[in-house]
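debug: dumping io for the single-chain case to check the tokenizer round-trip. Nothing else runs in this session.
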Amino acid sequence: MEVCFVRGFRALAHASTMEALSGPLSSVLFLVGVLSVHLSSVFHYHQFGNPLRLPHECGLSALFVFGLLFATSAVFRTVEGELSSGTASVALVRPLSRSLFFCSKVFGVFVALGVFLVGVFSASLLSSITAGIGQVMSMKDGTTRLWPMGVQLGVVSPILSFFLAAACNRFFQMRFCFTSCLMVALSQPVALLIALSCMDMPFASTGIDLLSVVLDFSCVTAAGFVFVAIAGALSVRLKPSYAAGLLVVMTVFSFLINLFETKAPLLAHFFRTFLPDLGKVWMPQDFMTAIFVVGACFCVTVIWLIIGSILIRGKEIL
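debug: decoded output
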């Protein structure tokens, strides 16, 4: 019986991941999210006192904004779409509980968001390298602000991935949206490796604190998982339009938790039980703070998975 549950969970999660990566909106958001990170380096006139800050902040923003749009829309399609259309009843005919069905669907979107993370993280790191090398070069000649090869690799690689996906769809009948999402995500690590191999200076000279970058992206990703779980739980009982509106309100409250801490500490603690504290998520992280933030987001994610599992038990499925 346990083997059957594991197989059912894996099958549903795999189907959810495939569906999340196969939507036209997912394909567009993948491309726009990655390109926004690389094109931000072109507007490098605003360095905020540090040439690496702009590409880093743009990478985090792209992960949160485009990743949230990508993941929540995928949750609405996979959870609410199957519940309203009646296709969920086919999966529940097998010895699978409704809670397992819900958790597997959300977990599949987690995996898809992880694929998005690979692309955006690699793009942000490549953009930071481009800015760091450009800063070193500008100190030598006083003119160059960016590493030209880094900009070319960053911009060309996702666009080329779209053309390759179209070719695979034309000649090998592969699904365009799914293939383009995977190729855009994988093109960024490849472009990053090419850039690293072509650098004529050590990585340390770029001034990038790799551990700090990893910690910041881990915190934002953990917060994204929370909102995916929230979207999944809301989509069990609400229509996508209402669920999306409520999710936007909850996102705003997540940014305002720190404001309640001084005037209404009990209210702040209540919000922290069900929402990630985005004020702390967005701050530069040291190791222990990042561990605390990720752990808190994990606990909130589990809470919303439990809430969604309870809500779906009372849901009438056609």
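debug: round-trip ok. Residues 165 and 171 are 10 Å apart (CA to CA).
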